[in-house]
Design brief:
Layout: H1 2-67, E1 70-76, E2 78-81, E3 84-100, E4 106-111, E5 118-119, E6 124-128, H2 131-195, H3 200-260, E7 263-265, E8 270-272, E9 282-283, E10 292-307, H4 311-319, E11 324-329, E12 332-344, E13 354-361, E14 373-380, E15 385-390, E16 395-397, E17 400-406, E18 412-416, E19 419-423, E20 426-429, E21 438-442, E22 453-457
Parallel strand pairs: 1-22
Antiparallel strand pairs: 1-21, 2-15, 3-10, 3-14, 4-6, 4-9, 5-8, 6-7, 8-10, 10-13, 11-12, 11-14, 12-13, 15-20, 16-17, 17-18, 17-21, 19-20
Amino acid sequence: MIRDAEDSIVTTHTTADETVSVDKQNKSGLVRPILLTVLILILAGAAYFFWGGQKTSNDKKGEVKKQRSAPVNVATARIQDVPIEVRTIGNVLPYSVVNIVPQVSGQLQKVFFTQGQSVKKGDLLFQIDPRTYQAALDQALGNVARDEAQIRSAQANLAKDQATVGTLEANVSRDYSLARLAKTQMSRYDKLVLEGAVSHEQSDQMTTNAATAEAAIEADKKAVENAKEVLNADRAAIQTAQGTLKADQAMVENARIQLGFCQIRSPITGRTGSLNVYEGNVVTANSATPLVSINQVQPIYVTFTVPEQNLDQVRKCMVDKSLTVQALIEGKRKEKFIGAVTFLESTVNTTSGTVTLRATFPNEDSKLFPGQFVDVIVTMPPDGQTTVVPSSAVQTSQQGNSVYVVKPDKTVDFVPVELKRTYGDLAAIGNGLKAGDVVVTDGQLQLTPGAHVDIVKQPTVDLGRSDAPGK
């Protein structure tokens, strides 16, 4: 029993310790969630304090920035005429290009210029061996001299035969006189025979003499006819000789021309290109490869295109000669070249929707070079009045063109506008502005809609004037 009691006591003691241990565990399980909750609340409060304070600070800074005045330059919009200006890219072309091709064959003896040299019209460029062509000319001249001698000989024969004809015609006249005398004597003797004064033999003699005179007349007439035929032959010989002379004279002229082709002279004033054939080579007449090419650069052409919507205005300005064209060389934009449109293409390019024009420039200083690309400015008279502001006032963004307009309370609005065109330092506005609106021209980067501005300077620029080309 004593053992049982001890065991009971021990058991009771053990149970009490376990109870205490279980209680401690239950209390520990309740504390942990409470601590975790408290920690979360503390972190949430800290985050709220941090972000809320920063937002308040940013709001205050934004208000300060919004209330701060930004210094700007401004200009006042006004109504005026603005010329139509089209800017495009042009290509410089030579006024003319001449390929120097030999017209005779032979050895190239001499080149009288350096490659790339400027030459004048008539300058000697090449010398081809002339000896063959000089010999041909001398031969042709000899033939002409021979023909002239033949003509003189034929003319002498004609003169001699004309004298012969004259002699024969005189003989015919003499024969007519003798025939008349013979007839008269015959008649007289016929009467005397009847009277018995003369014999029949004498009368017959007179009759014979009369018949002989008639025969002489006929013979001399035939001789005259034969002589005249000889004259015709002489005249034909002269004409033949004259024809031969003309043919040989033509040969002389041709030989002289061929000899002249041995010296090749520049047909235009311009600049030579690279030499394709050098001294000592044999050249062929009318060869496909030119000896050299010459570009005429005074005057010079510039070709360019304009949009087809400007076609009517361009044609009208070409008629009344109010179209102005200027070319600007890249890197030398302050140097402008004035030209005149001399050609308008007859069709519009359906692919690009443009029409090609060509302007002629004097190019007296040869600064425009063939093949060069230049900026071309085409200026036409205005098509009516429009609202104008300095081009520096127009801001370009993804939404289009806009300007900052200063309101009476010195705040700004960001106003979208329709930009019709620019002309030098001027911008023509279609919609969005009216005359009298004050726009910001400098300092836009520090502005936002509603910002306060401090007008530092309002330039006294006359918007009626511009640095645009042609002004």
